[in-house]
Amino acid sequence: MKFGPIPIDAAEGAVLAHATAAGEKRFRKAHRLSAEDISMLKGAGVSRVVAAVLAPDDLGEDAAAQKIAESMTLGGIEAKPAATGRVNLHAKAAGIFTVSEAVIDAINAVDPAITIATLAQHARVEKGQMVATVKIIPFAVSSSLVAAVAEICASGEIFAVNAYRSMRVGVIQTVLPGTKPTVLDKTLRVTEARLARSGGWLTAERRTPHEIAPVAEAAIALARDNDMVVIFGASAMSDFADVVPAAIERAGGTVIRAGMPVDPGNLLVLGTLGGKRIIGAPGCARSPKENGFDWVLDRLIAGLDVTARDIAGMGVGGLLMEIPTRPQPREPLPPKSRLKVGIVLLAAGRSSRMGGPNKLMALFDGQPLVRRTAERALASKASGTIVVTGHQRERVRAALSGLDVTFADNPDFADGLSTSLKAGTAYLPEDAAGAMIVLGDMPGVASDDLDRLIDAFRRAGGNSMIRATHQGKRGNPVLLPRSLFAAIAHLEGDTGARHLVEAEGLDVIDVEIGEGASVDVDTREALEGAGGVLQD
């Protein structure tokens, strides 16, 4: 592949390195130029472009990424269609991620043009979560490099999501004089919440004196009818011959490991009894905060073996006390009815097809269109409205004087839609579950229409894209879930979020709102037909 400036006469079939305009026509980055495109560019006075010219044995970025993904042996993971040189891989079910680090390192060592990034070893993942991505850096790559990567992939399973299994768990809690029943009751609630994420359940509890014999007797009984037994000691283990490890051995079991290099979680005990796993939980496991107990419990529930050597290897990254990654990982999400949606109102465009006047200043019933749109946004169920300004920013701000909106200035508005999306979503509060993208030039969209989109988003749990339609045809506004915000920050050029939705494999829910979804006013004829009056 050759990359750099090339004469326009030699550019047919080349891939544009940057967005390029031919009059009002704008060609996006990565667009492959046709003979018709060349003619338009030449007619606009373009004499050369910066582009990539593919060699006969090159594979385009999407084809290369797709071929590499197809050569992989995966477990519990599905690959999404290639887009922008990337194939994203997602978990089919909730579970624990495992990866062959040596294979990933070998693939990434083939050539910098080919990259694979994954989650960390033994990361906890949710169903549908992205766990890895294959990315081709340039616009094309030699087929020989792709073949070399495919050969490495043939060595066996590269990574997998080990799905949680539904397990029956029995709990023993020991009691000393002064032990509060409320503490024991809370421990049960926290344990049930931990098991709930995998569909498991706590079947039985026994409370015994903090003594070896009664704990051993309870362990034998619970191991008989459950898949796992967890023991919460009233007193922390202070020796390897203390009550919990000694009770496991008294019951006829084996202590695999007592103590672990994870803090909090140092005092965990892991053993087996009658072919079942038995865990002596550290005191920190009475709290929902992440600790070493979670690391062992999650792997066992996912069907992974945990050995003494595995626990000994948890020290790097095992200091959780000062850097908790999920301080309250099991706190419930807000009820669907309270999921917050912020509106990003795009008002930065140049109205280039109007030939001069700013369409957002056109009067509808004596009111500037941008103010009418903002007032309808403010009257909806949205938690707030952010107005992205750019072209004639001061004039737009003046038209919105007195309204409770937040302004996000976009100095790069001339570079395309993506810049306004990035500017607007960056202003959304951290508790916003979604962003509704509202175009400033759609006079037929009412507050009730916005509410119908928000209601659909909440019913879907805040995980889907919601799209307004008219007679089955997609239109605007669209409502994007928070899971896309990070990807929006990396958009370029005159690009919306559509390909991000496709790449992430998100569900798309269409909501019929009527003609307003398809009526914009890009031209004088359309604006006047919708009842608007242009202003200078």
TrEMBL record:
It comes from the Bacteria. This is Molybdopterin-binding/glycosyltransferase family 2 protein.
